[in-house]
Every structure is written in structure tokens, then in C-alpha cells.
Amino acid sequence: MDEELRTLTERLRREAGGGPAYERLVTTEDPDALAAVLTEPGRPLWARELAAFRLGLAGDRRAFESLVLLLNHRDPPRCASAAHALARLGDPRTARAAAALATNELRVAYALHPVRLLTALGGPEAVPALLTTLRRRLRPHDPYRRVALACVEGLGVLGDPRAVPVLREALAHPALAEAAVRALERIPGAR
């Protein structure tokens, strides 16, 4: 079993209190039954999350909207699970959605997982979105250092020369300096 799936099922088993409804969603092999959970009224969040996650891992694009909503959830484990499933979904809309979430300044407190997802996807949206998000985090006393650090690390992984000026700015921030040095080392000609 996929480690992320195991973690998710354990967390949701506790949230759901076990029971037959939970067991059906964990064991069903019917993608239509899982997809129905996403649109049926009155379904609890744990059921929608489990159905969307399983569909995402299976590459079923009916899970896309639900997974994007979960990627922007206030609960970090839900965001992490959604990012994991979206990375495997293979939907071409995923990078644009992650970029929109990562750069939404009103939701920056929840941008960590969209930033990490952008790094994993590495599409054309990734570098511009990470640069935008990181620039905003370089303001004095910005409280979102984990988001900034994820941007720095992601830009290093992506190795795009457009990141060099912003990564050099990040060197002046003690919480980011070490990661910025490592990121710059990964970009050809940045030294």
C-alpha cells in the first residue's frame, strides 16, 4: 500500500469512527461509486477526501475539483494528501491551479503544499509562481517563512536561471540563507 494512502486511511478511519460506510469507501474498486461520493449531498468531508484521493491515485480526472479544494484546505494533512493525489492524477489543469493557489496572497497561510506541488510538477507555471510567492515573502517580518523556504528549495530543484536574482535577495534573510546558497549552487552559472 502507498505510504500516503496508509496515512490517509488511518487518519480518516479515526475521523469517520470506522463503520461500514468507511469500509465500503476503502475497499470498493468501483470508480463510479467513488465519483458519486464527490457530488452526493450530505456526504461528510472525510468521505469526499477518501474518494477524491483514491480516484486521483487511479488517474480519474473526476477527482480534480475536489482535490484542488482540499489542496487549499486549512488542515495541513488534507493539503498534503491532496497534493500527493494531484501529482499522480495527470490532469493538465493541475499546475495552473497550484500556481493560482500558491500566488493567492489572501490564502498564503495555506500555500506550502501548492508550492511543493508546483516543484514536483515542474511545468511552465512553476518558476513564475514560485518567484512571485518568494518575492512577497522577502518583506521584513513576513510570518510565512515555511512557504518562503519551500519556494527557495523548489527554485533550486527546478534550476531555472530566472531565479538567481530573487535567490540572491533571499541570502539576506537568515532563515533562508542556507537554502538559498544550496539553491544557487544547483543553477548553472549562478555562482
From TrEMBL:
Coiled coil: none annotated. SMART domains: EZ_HEAT. Its EC number is 4.3.2.2. Keywords: Lyase. NCBIfam families: PRK08937.3-1. It is an enzyme of class 4 (lyase). InterPro entries: ARM-like, ARM-type_fold, PBS_lyase_HEAT. One of its GO terms (molecular function) is lyase activity. The keyword tRNA-binding does not apply. The keyword Nucleotidyltransferase does not apply. It comes from Streptomyces griseoaurantiacus. It comes from the Bacteria. This is Adenylosuccinate lyase. The lineage of its organism: Bacteria, Bacillati, Actinomycetota, Actinomycetes, Kitasatosporales. Pfam families: HEAT_PBS.
